[in-house]
Amino acid sequence: MWITENKLTNTDRPKYGLLEQILSPSNLNRAFKRVRSNKGSGGTDKMEVESLKDYLVENKDQFIQTILDGKYRPNPVRRVEIPKEKGVRKLGIPTVVDRVVQQAIAQVLSPIYEQQFSANSYGFRPGRNAHQALNKCRDYITNGYKYAVDMDLEKFFDTVNQSKLIEVLSRTVKDGRVISLIHKYLNAGVVVRNKFEETEMGVPQGGPLSPLLSNIMLNELDKELERRGHRFVRYADDLVIFCKSKRSADRTLGNIVPHIENKLFLKVNGEKTKVAYIREIKFLGYSFYVHKGEGRLRVHPKSVAKMKERIRTLTSRSNGWGYARRKKALRQYITGWVNYFKLADMKKLLIGIDEWYRRRLRMVIWKLWKLTRTRWRNLIKLGINKYKAWEWANTRKGYWHTAKSFILSRSVTCERLSQAGFVFFSDYYRSVRVII
């Protein structure tokens, strides 16, 4: 193990605290392997993951000692903006070396804080996932909590009060050197279009440490909600508080907002935060309804619209893809989408989606056949009378219109599309659906 060579540890050292645990050979080696497996692009120093091992082997002694002496200065993160539903999400990409240090910190602190975290928190935690959070919501609804406070924390990661976060950390982490190192990462700054900007607020998204720090901060809110006896589910900064009546939900919202803004110094988005009946809210891409007194899950309309937009892109007739590439991309997307939304009742929805999806496939196939003679020959091969095949091969109707014709429905059948290797939503849903 390359990072466990001599001089990394000193058994005669008079002090062995949390920082020494973070910098221990086994922990650093595990952090290095995790960063290497995650890959990802480099930070502001341009070093890529492939160069990380050579750098650490050559500089490990000085690197470790600099951190122990409190002289290590993290590099600023590189700003990357990725589009989201409305606007952009700002990510801060640390250098690969800083990612190793952050990962090492997270690996030591995570088990400590896991003992403190709420059972109602599911995001960025080992052994917990979105499906568990959604099942918890369903259980609350079944028990009569049919109104919800759909809480939206405005630009949470960008507006975290760093002083408050350090105060919360200091209650548990008694090694001041670790607190100082984390503080340095929070204040490392960001490079935006080759220009340095200070980061006096927020926790940069994109590093291994930010999910843990966000949970540590929001655990303060979890504890307050539990102290008040609320039923709630939180996944990262998405929070839903369940109540038995609209009046109770309104009162809950009015009472908890002052605590969030005045005690935790976070900002509640007044436009997006609302009190509503459970079928009107969106949580982790799902919505909810009640059937025979039982809470049930369905796919939120916005999630359906987003999925259809993605299918339009993957079945574009002008992207120049061949059959193999298109089938692979569609298979990966459809299986991933269905596996995430398999808790929802969506059999009828997916049957309708598949009809539309097959029409798009036929449109692409018709475009790929292109020449009149090619279309004529292929239609005959697929069982169409040669005179009718010649008539449709010469059609002047558009691709989308032709894709709905009985000629393509009879020739490019559902069975033939499946045999060709195309995956369909409803078929895959039936194979993975778990009836609870």
Short overview:
By secondary structure, this protein is an alpha+beta fold. It has helices spanning 18-22, 25-38, 52-68, 96-114, 130-142, 156-159, 162-172, 176-186, 210-227, 246-262, 301-314, 323-341, 347-369, 372-381, 386-393, 399-402, 406-411, 414-419, 425-432; strands spanning 77-83, 88-93, 147-152, 190-192, 195-197, 231-235, 238-243, 274-277, 286-291, 294-299. It contains 19 helices and ten strands.
What features would you highlight for this structure?
single chain; 436 residues; alpha+beta; four-stranded antiparallel sheet
What does this structure look like?
With 436 residues, the protein is an alpha+beta fold. The chain is built from 19 helices and 10 strands. It has a 4-stranded mixed β-sheet with strand order 2-1-4-5, with no helix packed on it. Helix 7 (162-172) packs antiparallel against helix 8 and helix 14 runs antiparallel to helix 15 (386-393). The chain starts with 17 loop residues before the first helix and ends with a helix.
